[in-house]
Specification:
The structure is a homodimer. The first copy, chain A, has 2 domains: about 170 residues, Rossmann fold (3-Layer(aba) Sandwich); about 90 residues, 2-Layer Sandwich (Pantoate--beta-alanine Ligase, Chain: A,domain 2). Helices cover about 35% and strands about 20% of the residues of chain A. A 6-stranded parallel sheet of chain A has the order 1-4-3-2-6-7, with helices on both faces.
Chain lengths: ~280, ~280
């Protein structure tokens, strides 16, 4: 497995790859969710490339950039075990050199609702770095997790709108046995918080159950989800949304494919999760 | 010469090109300036591709989108005579389909001064369409004219910042015998306006002459340029600028490489021109 730490090393290693390249962009501190992406990339492509970069431009000023968990040696060992060919581990000053001023912006509700309301500028940071990584790595396919559903939609929209020559593939969320969606941020959970954190998944399952039993009033489902989450003392709701799965406009009636998503603080840790219904 | 009118046709024709591709993006109504770019592209690459697309997103609401001159048959004949291999002539609805919301934005003074002050949103339109065309045409090199100096700087900055795999080449301005920079908009000039239009070039030559005779006070040079232009009754100054050639910050002293640029209305026609000094 090659580890490229500079743009020049990346170009050199990339040039040696003939055939299709599957790409898994990550912020590191890998878990089974990332590895599931690496495995699909391995199955579908001649070569597999991953990146590990805690992208500063997608963190807000009061977010956890400096404390975001990092363990590069462990990450590299995990990627090597999945037969990754190339890992790109750039320095921030190579991705954002002095004088950098260009941003890729998906405008409109898709990048302004839900996560964006709590994290202004987040998706501009995501789409900009993903666009750059696509140009640098030149993959045939890139793999993203459904856990970050809005991110997946925004990246797909960016790639389509700018005619980016990369197929964006979205894979299912990988979960702990109690349903908690795998996330690097789960490592922040202390003591009782870990047990409390599965309230996100439980509320999503409650929404699905209500839908399957015939409930079509979206606000009724949101209300029941909020009630369930508020019954967990360590939790604090950021948002509970039932939105059109394509444009993320909030729904009144469950009459089409819907993204049920939520962001909840468990103690100081902000977690997100989602399911599709309909 | 192949003419691609859809994205599918473009992909098919592009796939058949092995080796380097030189690309000349244009808005059509070609003149000697465009053809000089096609000739360099021909000399430096295995294949030459051009595009003809009057890009709506780079025109402001009160600009000349609907009246911009068009003559596709003539343009195609001129490109064929320069041994162009492929011309991409997309429809606006294929470049900006329903639901399109993504923009590439070079932020900061580079895209906010000079042309941008008169044409808000202009460079966002330019960088977005150029980014898309680069992804669609996948050229090795792309050729732009120095006549649109700020556009060239903004496109180079976009390509560098986003790690675009295209070498952006900027070629000298081609001029009429009296010095008027070639431009599709010269076709708007009526009667005496054509003669009056060379006041742009004369004022640039006056700036160079002052510089060569030792003048280093930028405002003194600007003042003399404005005086000369104002002596032409058909002219109305939009801006006269002497700016740092890299970041376009306005200069007080001519102590480094400077872009001397101006925008002047001759009757109703807005013309731009520039030279480098220092």
């Amino acid at each position: 497995m090659k580890v490229a730490r500079t743009l020049t090393e990346l170009k050199d290693y990339r040039r040696a790859m003939v055939g299709s390249v599957g790409f898994v962009p990550t912020m590191g501190y890998l878990h089974e969710g990332h590895l599931s992406l690496a495995r699909v990339a391995r199955a579908e492509n001649d070569h597999v490339a991953a990146s590990i970069f805690v992208n500063p431009t997608q963190f807000g000023p009061r977010e956890d950039l400096s404390t975001y968990p990092r363990d590069l040696d462990r990450d590299l060992a995990m990627l090597e075990a999945e037969r990754t060919d190339l890992v790109f581990v750039p320095r921030a000053e190579d991705i954002y050199p002095v004088g950098f001023v260009t941003f890729v912006d998906v405008t409109g509700p898709l990048s302004q609702r839900l996560e964006a309301e709590s994290r202004p500028g987040h998706f501009r940071g995501v789409t900009t770095v993903v666009n750059k990584l696509f140009n640098l790595v030149e993959p045939s396919r890139a793999y993203f997790g459904q856990k970050d559903a809005q991110q997946a939609l925004v990246v797909q929209r960016m790639a389509a709108d700018l005619n980016v020559n990369v197929q964006v593939v979205v894979m299912p969320t990988i979960r702990e046995p109690d349903g908690l969606a795998m996330s690097s941020r789960n490592n922040y959970l202390k003591g009782d918080e870990r047990r409390a954190a599965n309230v996100l998944y439980r509320s999503l399952m409650r929404a699905r159950e209500l839908y399957l039993s015939g409930e079509r009033d979206a606000e009724g489902v949101r209300r029941e989800m909020r009630r369930l989450i508020e019954s967990e003392p360590l939790s604090q709701i950021d948002y509970v949304s039932i939105a059109d799965a394509d444009d993320l406009s909030e729904l009144e009636s469950l009459n089409r494919r819907a993204l049920v998503s939520l962001a909840v603080r468990i103690g100081k840790t902000r977690l997100i999760d989602n399911i599709m219904i309909g």
